[in-house]
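ARCHIVE CARD
CATEGORY: sequence design from structure
SOURCE FIELD: tokenized fold
FIELD CONTENT:
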């Protein structure tokens, strides 16, 4: 099984799928799923854009890619997604239409994840719940924790909600060992004044082989977590730099074969083939 991981796509919903298609063609290695660490840019109604998205969208229409390409059917996009036949599973970030996502989450209250787009290829997983990806005789177990933390006790919907904390408390009682934790925010063990305390608690009390996160704007980095067990990986945001290229560590591949996990940092020689100026035409 191979799973591609991305973070902070900010409306460029098609870009992870196109990068996966490119990766498969260049390497001959099949990708089975995409996991995405939040800031999807899921805004189906432009009246509900947050201030940051409005600001960026003035200069970059890609910020509105969910509205443009994933709320009403485009036959070309549908044909491409059907051909690729891969689903993307996301956690919520802080730049989403949370009222829209709340409505869908309540409609799918018996499911651990729910589709959010017209093609039913983009899913959001509920925070704190056990999830499994299954391909033939291989299973990858993961948990997602969405939104961001706040040390000031604010309750706006971009911050973790009480019902999600309840699910996380249930998770802490498990004796299971998980392959992957995906979060939008990082834990709160740093000195920069932000992070989510619930992530730190989960990492201290539940065993994960890997933790992937985004949000912070920091470069890609991989290090052993404070718990001494988990490999912590900051995925570089899927953003084009001033030269119009994607930076190192924006695309990670997790492979699970015969129960063994490995990760690959996709080389920039591959990702550089998809630039700010050509990716939509690829």
């Amino acid at each position: 099984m191979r799973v591609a991981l991305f973070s902070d796509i900010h409306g460029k919903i098609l870009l992870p799928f196109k990068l996966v298609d490119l990766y498969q063609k260049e390497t001959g290695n099949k990708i089975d799923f995409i996991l995405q660490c939040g800031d999807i840019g899921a805004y189906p109604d432009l009246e509900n854009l947050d201030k940051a998205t409005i600001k960026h969208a003035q200069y970059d229409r890609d910020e509105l890619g969910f509205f443009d390409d994933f709320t009403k059917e485009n036959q070309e996009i549908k044909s491409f997604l059907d051909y690729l036949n891969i689903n993307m599973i996301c956690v919520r970030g802080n730049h989403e239409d949370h009222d829209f996502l709340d409505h869908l989450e309540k409609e799918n209250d018996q499911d651990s994840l729910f589709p959010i787009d017209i093609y039913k290829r983009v899913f959001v997983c509920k925070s704190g719940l056990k999830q499994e990806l299954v391909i033939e005789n291989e299973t990858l177990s993961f948990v997602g924790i969405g939104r961001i933390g706040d040390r000031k006790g604010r309750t706006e919907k971009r911050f973790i909600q009480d019902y999600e904390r309840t699910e996380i408390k249930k998770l802490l009682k498990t004796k299971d060992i998980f392959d992957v934790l995906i979060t939008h925010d990082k834990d709160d063990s740093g000195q920069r004044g932000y992070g989510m305390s619930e992530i730190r608690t989960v990492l201290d009390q539940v065993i994960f082989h890997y933790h992937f996160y985004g949000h912070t704007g920091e470069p890609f980095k991989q290090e052993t977590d404070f718990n001494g067990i988990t490999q912590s990986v900051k995925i570089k945001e899927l953003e084009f730099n001033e030269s119009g290229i994607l930076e190192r560590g924006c695309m990670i591949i997790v492979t699970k074969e015969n129960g063994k996990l490995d990760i690959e940092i996709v080389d920039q020689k591959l990702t550089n083939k998809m630039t700010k100026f050509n990716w939509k035409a690829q």
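CARD ANNOTATION: Helices lie at 14-27, 51-57, 65-69, 75-84, 98-107, 162-171, 197-205, 268-271. The first helix runs from residue 14 to 27.
SHELF: design records, drawer C
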